Amino acid sequence: xxxxxxxxxxxxxxxxxxxxxxxxxxxxxxxxxxxxxxxxxxxxxxxxxxxxxxxxxxxxxxxxxxxxxxxxxxxxxxxxxxxxxxxxxxxxxxxxxxxxxxxxxxxxxxxxxxxxxxxxxxxxxxxxxxxxxxxxxxxxxxxxxxxxxxxxxxxxxxxxxxxxxxxxxxxxxxxxxxxxxxxxxxxxxxxxxxxxxxxxxxxxxxxxxxxxxxxxxxxxxxxxxxxxxxxxxxxxxxxxxxxxxxxxxxxxxxxxxxxxxxxxxxxxxxxxxxxxxxxxxxxxxxxxxxxxxxxxxxxxxxxxxxxxxxxxxxxxxxxxxxxxxxxxxxxxxxxxxxxxxxxxxxxxxxxxxxxxxxxxxxxxxxxxxxxxxxxxxxxxxxxxxxxxxxxxxxxxxxxxxxxxxxxxxxxxxxxxxxxxxxxxxxxxxxxxxxx
Amino acid sequence: xxxxxxxxxxxxxxxxxxxxxxxxxxxxxxxxxxxxxxxxxxxxxxxxxxxxxxxxxxxxxxxxxxxxxxxxxxxxxxxxxxxxxxxxxxxxxxxxxxxxxxxxxxxxxxxxxxxxxxxxxxxxxxxxxxxxxxxxxxxxxxxxxxxxxxxxxxxxxxxxxxxxxxxxxxxxxxxxxxxxxxxxxxxxxxxxxxxxxxxxxxxxxxxxxxxxxxxxxxxxxxxxxxxxxxxxxxxxxxxxxxxxxxxxxxxxxxxxxxxxxxxxxxxxxxxxxxxxxxxxxxxxxxxxxxxxxxxxxxxxxxxxxxxxxxxx
Lengths: 435, 312
What we know:
Chain B: Pfam families: BPD_transp_2. The complex is a heterodimer of chains A (435) and B (312). Chain A is an alpha/beta fold and 435 residues long. Chain A has 2 domains: 44-158 and 292-382 and 404-425, Response regulator (Rossmann fold, 3-Layer(aba) Sandwich); 161-287, Rossmann fold, CATH 3.40.50.2300. Chain A is built from 16 helices and 16 strands. Chain A has helices at 5-15, 18-24, 57-76, 96-109, 121-133, 160-175, 187-202, 221-230, 241-244, 246-253, 271-274, 296-299, 304-311, 320-339, 344-352, 407-412, and strands spanning 43-49, 84-90, 114-117, 138-140, 148-150, 153-155, 178-184, 206-213, 234-238, 260-262, 283-287, 356-357, 371-374, 379-389, 395-403, 422-424. The model of chain A is unreliable at 1-39 (pLDDT under 50). With 312 residues, chain B is an all-alpha fold. In chain B, 76% of the residues lie in helices and 3% in strands. Chain B has 13 helices and 2 strands, in the order αααααββαααααααα. In chain B, strands 1-2 form a two-stranded antiparallel sheet. In chain B, strand 1 and strand 2 (150-153) form a beta hairpin. In chain B, helix 2 crosses helix 10. Chain B is globular. Chains A and B meet through helix 3, strand 8, helix 8, helix 9 and helix 10 of A and helix 1, strand 2, helix 6, helix 11 and helix 12 of B.
């Protein structure tokens, strides 16, 4: 199916909307998706705040692009319930202060009907109070440590329990029970490391040691020596951001050849493409999506990958979070159509009824078959994959299955339709071994 | 358990990182009185040039690294002519407006900070626009050495050797050559140097170019081990400034000494207590040094020497 910007314009021309596009165009989206028609009731507005510069630009830029792809596709197919989507798109530059300012602008001045914003957990926590105060429907799309039970937030990326939950048991079985954890030193890394402990306990493995590394650090000599001293069967790595990427090159050149399980490498910053082989050899990523995920709706003819690179021929990689931005835009579309309105309380209610993708009227999610939003927790029962890089950095899918979110629903008892709250639960509250 | 070889290798690693990060900055700041906040981006230029020379042009790594240093040196000269001394804009404005438009930034610390900060923003964003959020990285050469349960990247040891070599070259250049003598004369007393027939304008330009080339070479040397992205210069900036300030006014000796002292502190603490504590220890050491040695290590040595001379 051809959905280039040319065909979009042809579509708009055919529907007569092109006449006013130029006049009313006020969107900052680089895809130029402003398709405002004369009356404001014929449009709805989506806010997209994703990092296109700063420390998270590498992983944030594909998110913005994938949002614009979904919006363009939806607009070209008649919009949401006949309404064309306008965008409020800005680059917060990986700066949490700027995120807060832009979030206020999006809500108070732009009156967005739904907001997609933020790569890091630190960013999410910086803007969540603003979102809750304004009762703003908000999609957080990064894979993350888990535990956010918030009536206005839909954390649709996979959680640590889902990501680590598929890769850690596999590595214990393949290589042995001794684990060494290295993680970025902020809330995501700390909580993910707690999850490694919880999962190690559940799988009769043990954590020999752990180290938390500041985001600004790019020298890993002493870390590598400490791993060698502990001599684990495998390493769990939750390193984050451009500086931490240096670890993989450095461990390869230092001759550290222990297998590494990760929830952060490759699927987000495509290290297997950027770094010379064999830096990423024997790295196992537990992810819901990578560009290489071999589903028909992803790598098949005219699939997600084809459509993305048709719209962005120069884009380097289609990453995990981009897919989440993409399918969650469709989830939102489905919810608005089900609610019959863009009024946020009604849309949230529709989302909570358990929106599914991959059914007859909604597209398949590229990560695999049907995926379902869990209304009680606002999380997604993802289709998870273990993707392994070999010596030449070829990627193979080792294992895949659907893994529901269980921490919030089963352990913490989060049920937002019945008990609206704005809490982040942490594993330490429920598991002794996480302390 | 502390392993002596680990500690020694990490000391060499930290020493090399600090010395290489600081070398170019020390010359531009210590000799010329210009605070170059674009130092990290000069390192970026060297790193990107070397990497692209290998991946796009297929040059051998060593040649690519020299090209990285050379290109950055030329860029430094351009920067000096246009922004720092304003010689070229002034040349044009003299002929069109009949007056200078740029007041040279030498010994105007705060002003040079603002100007070079602006330059650093332009360079970072320029690299992002031109090359995207990252470029493909080259692999680290030379493999690893093993000892017992440990192994270590041989290339990091080579870096330590290169850093010492660079210090020696710089020392030789500024103390034993005609160029070095003229450069130092220019910096100490511009008018007298001019009266003695030194082309001070040219000295400023070449010294700035040499400092820039060192920064570029640093970037090129570290290109195989750090992540290639537009903000990579940030990783060097803190260590570079701390080393220069702790080192004090004598460029070569100061950089070597502060590389030694700070490298030892960084290596010991990160080896014993982890990377995070290592970083904290480095900054605490800098705080203490500034409190008790306001003129840096070499300033303190100079003070001792003067006192001894007076008492003699």
